[in-house]
Structures are given as C-alpha cells and as structure tokens.
From TrEMBL:
Signal sequence region: 1-23
Keywords on record: Signal
Top-level lineage group: Bacteria
One Pfam family, short name: DUF4402
UniProt protein name: DUF4402 domain-containing protein
Amino acid sequence: MKKTIISFFTICMIVGISNNLNAQNTATESADASATIITPITITNTADLNFGDIIDGTGTVTLSPAGVRTTDYQAFSGTQAGTVTAASFGITGQGDYTYSITLPTSDVTLTETGSATMIVNAFVSDPSGTGTLSSGAGIVSVGATLNVVSGQTAGVYTGTFDVTVAYN
C-alpha cells in the first residue's frame, strides 16, 4: 500500500510539474492597431505656358518659372510681348507633407492650325524637384524653352504637356 501511495504521489508530482512547465512556455500581450488617412494630393492648372508674340527667326525663347522671357537670336526685336506667362499649378493635400514634381523630359510639339510645328523642351519648375504643402497648399510654376526655326509659319501654335505631383 505504501508503494501505491508513493507511486500515486510521484505521478501527481510529475503531472503538476509538467503543467507548470507548459504554462511557463507561452505568454500573451496585446497591441493597438491604427491607420491614418491623409488628404489625397491634387494638382490644378491655374495658368497656361505662353511665350507671347515672337518674330520669325532662328533660335530659342526661354521662359523662366517666374515668367521672365529671354531669347538667344537677333530676329527677336522690338517690344512685341503679347501675353507672356509661366504655367502655374495649384497643389493641395496633407499639410506640411512634401511632394515630388515630374516635368516632361521629352520634346513637346506645338502645332499651328495649318500643320506647322515648333518644339518646346528643357522644362523647369519652381520649386524644383520637390515642394512642401504648407498649410495643405502649394504652387508650382513651370517654364520651358521654345525652339524657333527660320521661316516659321505665322499663326498660333498650341500643344499640351503634363506635370505630375506625388507624395514623397
């Protein structure tokens, strides 16, 4: 009988120890989950790129993001300015976030109604490359270079180009 009690006691001890060992092998803790939805970034054209009135010649007309026009050819003379404006875009989104600006890297063709063409390239912006949405808004101004060839057909030349903004 004594052996039975000792055996029973030994079995109870082994089961108790093994239960304690299993209980010490796991632990549980909770964590919170969260997500923040931010305002989507948007871009709106507020002014078109306009090189103004240009006399026929060969060379380039450069328009800075500040709207300052310069030329590198002699056929441009006089005070014929016409409407000269840098392109302007309003940017909205999450306040104080930064964004990247992507300008055309390829030539953009302007076409006159009769099919004559001119090339615009070397796009630049202010801010350049990246901007910050102070209080959730910003402005991107864009300039470029217009390439004029001798014998350019008189008329109004038009074309489109894309400016893309994205959160960094």
